[in-house]
Design goal:
Elements (H helix, E strand, L loop, with lengths): L1 H8 L16 H29 L4 H28 L2 H12 L6 H36 L1 H37 L4 H50 L1 H7 L3 H19 L2 E5 L3 E5 L3 H26 L6 H13 L14 H21 L1
Antiparallel strand pairs: 1-2
Pfam family, one: 7tm_7
Family: Belongs to the insect chemoreceptor superfamily. Gustatory receptor (GR) family.
Protein name: Gustatory receptor
Length: about 375
């Protein structure tokens, strides 16, 4: 599955070309530099063209625009320069760790992944068509930096969720192993200890690769929502302009679609005895998967304490096992700025409400 995602992300050099391509060729390095150069030139070109419009914005709108576009640029710079240019070995370290503990996802999850990609690419193609057909070549070129950022954000968002699902699957496997195996329990505990240690290193590698992009996604999703809320609540003439022509309406719907993908991902109904709503990407899923992994880790610890009393001969071994596992507790962070767990979502909502109140008072 990671190989499949590499094929998706390597178009704009956001992921390694292959899981086995440990030493990028000269052409591949030039590809990274070319994407970075095109993105930088078009980004600053767009800012130069849009500079007269910035002078017409209020202070709050100017801050929102500056933070949003700065986040766009530096998130992609981090991906292209830091992750892919200077530290591409982090990707292969993560891939090797996942392979070492034989983590695989089932066919159902792989089907949902492909469906998510198809829906996202369809949305991208439709937005490009609307921009070119209704607004012309110049506007189409002006929107290229935003489209590149959207592609990179989605690529890393879906990679984030896939890796988290793989890690969660393995923690669940270890919990079942400790719960079900009464014979050869000593051997099982040794294998689980090694697996937990490897998963901790997986989480560390995950934070190194996806921590900054997760932070960028949170900022981008939050401030884009602020922009639309600010305009919708204070500037009725702009809202009327959004629905002025057919092209404006279609483009606005595309933007709302991308914001929805960024926050809650692609909704993929899947029939499995009942209709289950599954999300393959998005900030919300990233937070809930991280929290679920932490809960599964706590379940493993609780189960080990419960099993300790059932076998007095392994009492010392269980104490060592619990101590070792506690020392290898996973911790998910967004670029080490804050931990990612269920409370993160409420902190985002709380901060958003506070900022929104400031926006209203400043009007």
């Amino acid at each position: 599955m990671i190989e499949f995602l590499c094929k998706f992300g390597r178009i704009f050099a956001f992921t390694p070309y292959s899981c086995n391509n440990r030493h990028p060729s000269f052409f591949q390095r030039c590809h990274i530099c070319l994407v970075f150069a095109i993105y930088t030139v078009t980004f600053f070109g767009v800012q130069y063209v849009a500079a007269p419009q910035y002078s017409q914005l209020t202070h709050i709108q100017l801050v929102l625009s500056a933070v949003t576009y700065t986040n766009f640029y530096f998130t992609n710079v981090h991906i292209l320069v830091v992750v892919m240019g200077l530290n591409q070995n982090r990707w292969f370290r993560l891939i090797d760790l996942l392979k070492s503990i034989e983590i695989r996802l089932d066919t159902k999850q792989f089907t949902i992944l492909k469906l998510s990609l198809v829906i996202f690419l369809s949305l991208c193609a439709f937005e490009l068509f609307v921009t070119f057909y209704y607004f012309g070549l110049v506007t189409f070129l002006l929107f290229l930096p935003t489209n590149i950022y959207t592609y990179s954000q989605f690529t890393y968002s879906i990679c984030t969720c896939v890796v988290l699902q793989m890690v969660l699957t393995r923690y669940q496997h270890y919990t079942k192993a400790v719960l079900n195996r009464t014979d050869e329990l000593f051997t099982v505990l040794q294998r689980v200890k090694l697996g937990v240690f490897t998963l901790k290193k997986c989480v560390n590698a995950f934070n190194d690769i996806f921590g900054w992009t997760t932070l960028g996604s949170v900022f981008c999703g939050t401030f884009k929502c602020f922009v639309y809320i600010d305009v919708a609540s204070k500037h009725s003439e702009v809202v009327e302009m959004w629905w002025g022509t057919e092209g404006d309406q279609l483009h606005f719907l595309c933007e709302i679609g991308f914001i929805a993908v960024m926050w809650v991902g692609v909704l993929a109904p899947y029939l499995d005895n009942s209709v289950i709503a599954l999300f393959q990407t998005g900030i919300v899923l990233t937070i809930f998967l991280s929290d679920k992994i932490l809960n599964e880790f706590d379940n493993l610890l609780d189960l080990a304490w419960q099993r300790k009393g059932l076998n007095p001969h392994l009492d010392k071994e269980f104490k060592l096992f619990v101590s070792f596992v506690e020392c290898n507790r996973p911790r998910f962070t967004a670029a080490r700025f804050f931990a990612i767990d269920r409370s993160t979502l409420f902190k985002i909502i709380n901060s958003s409400i506070g900022f929104f109140l400031i926006m209203i008072q400043s009007y």
